[in-house]
Structure formats: C-alpha cells, structure tokens
C-alpha cells in the first residue's frame, strides 16, 4: 500500500509517516519500481500501535522503546504518566478556579483583573504578612471573590492571618456562609474548627442558625466553639454544652462567662441554675469539677441559685462547701 493510501486509512498524515520513517519507528517494508514507499499489513498494524501509545501521552522516543525493547516493562512508565496527568489536571483545575473567581468579581476593566490576580496570589503567598495584608485589603480595595476568602480561611494556620480572614468574611455578611457550612462537614478536624470560628464572627441570623445546628455536630470542638458564640448571642440552646465545658475544664472560664451572660434573663437563669445543681448532684462528677460548677453559680442570679449555694455550703466536700459559703456571703452582702 502506498503512502497516500496508508494516510487515508490510518488518519496519520503522509508528512507524519515520513517523520516516522526518518526516526526509524515505521520503515515501509518495500519500495515500488518507481521508488515509492510501499507499506505491508504489518507496517500498517505498527502504525496503529504507535498511535495508540501516543494517545496515552507517550513521546515518540518512549513509543519506540515500548515497541522495540523486548525487556521493556510498561508499569513504571504508566505510573509516571499517571503522575504527570494528575499534575496537569491539578494545574488546569487551579487555573479554571482562578478564572471563575475573577469572573465572579465582575471586573470593570483589565486594571481590576490585574488587582484581583495580585490579591489572589498574595493570599497564597508563603509570607504570613503578605497574606494578612491581602486579607485586610480584600474588602477595602478590589473585592476578592468570597470563595477565595473561604478557601484561605479554612486552610490558614497563622493566627493573625486567620483573624484577618475571618474579619474579611464577616464583612461579606452571609456571602460565604454556604461554603463555611460545607467546611463544618470536612473530614479534616482543623478545617471544621476554622469553619465554625469563621461562622462565629458573622453577626447575622443565618450564622446563628448554623451555629445552633453545629451544637449537634459530631465534632466536640465544633460544638464547643458554637456554644461559646451562641452564649454571647443570648441563645439558651448553648447551655448544656457550656456546662459540659465547665465540667470537662475545657475553656471553662469562657464557658462560665457565657453562662453568666445568658443568665441576664430570669427564665434562663433558673434553667442554668437547675442544670448546674443537677450536675453537682451527679455522683460520677469529680471533686475538681464540682468546685468549678459551684464557682459557675456565682454569677447566676435568682432564688434557685441562692438555695443551691445554701445547701452546698454544707456539702461533704470541704472545698465545695467553702466555695459555696464564700459566694453566698458575697451575694448576701450586696
């Protein structure tokens, strides 16, 4: 078969077939009387083999090795091709994400595009100072797409930069809440923690609703951060978790402060006092935890608390009794 016929049948151009010949990949078996290349069926089969291997991303040199080296083992080469392909996909995905973010910012002109690109690059800088400045300027100058801020906030390890990113997200209001809510379900514990911390700084009803849902999160760290934030917002749903924090001595001072803030409403104050007393009566609670629970009663107003302190001043645990008597004395002196 002549070169033109082979090109039509295989889909490989005559020019490429000549290139294969010059490289020694496919040399036609024969020549016509006029000196034209004449390909055998075996030559054509080899051409199809070459095209198949090229479709996997192999270079012509690698194709030659694969076809001609009897000791060639493809596994290592295939593994390398898989790695290269994954890297290429990751690079293309990153580019696509960046383009989408630029588009979402609706730049008015190329100057805005360049500023957005610069801010996105700064958010990914190795320098914490550069990332922090980018976070602070992301709202005041050309706005960075909220998706980029959320991604940065959920991955940031530097506390100062993280604080700046949470501030920037708070300026968006509920703009990033849906993405932050997804972060609460991340398989990575640190991401879940950063998500709830970011939600806690957004002062609106939708954020409060997310924090209330977070009280049932399987991650105890998420539940604790949600409870502290809800306590500051006056949401009584946080009371059980806050009391657990006092018992477990985990941010117990902050938890006690949150309980005190919640107790400004009489109905909630009685609820808190009752729960604290119930915990104190639990025989499985350790002595140190009972002292902390007693101390937490100090800032809870109401008759329920006063009666509990009077009873506790005669508690078998001397430390608890002394703490209760001291608190009761201060309350009576007011």
UniProtKB/TrEMBL annotation:
| Gene3D superfamilies on file | 1.10.1660.10, Leucine-rich Repeat Variant (1.25.10.10)
Q: What is this protein called?
A: MerR family transcriptional regulator
Q: Name one Pfam family in it.
A: MerR_1
Recorded hits in PROSITE patterns, A to Z, give: HTH_MERR_1 (PS00552), HTH_MERR_2 (PS50937)
Q: Which InterPro entries match?
A: ARM-like, ARM-type_fold, DNA-bd_dom_put_sf, MerR-type_HTH_dom, MerR_fam, PBS_lyase_HEAT
Molecular function GO labels: DNA binding; DNA-binding transcription factor activity
Q: Which organism is it from?
A: Streptomyces inhibens
Whether Acetylation counts among this entry's keywords is no
Q: What positions does the domain HTH merR-type occupy? A: 1-69
- What are the entry keywords? DNA-binding
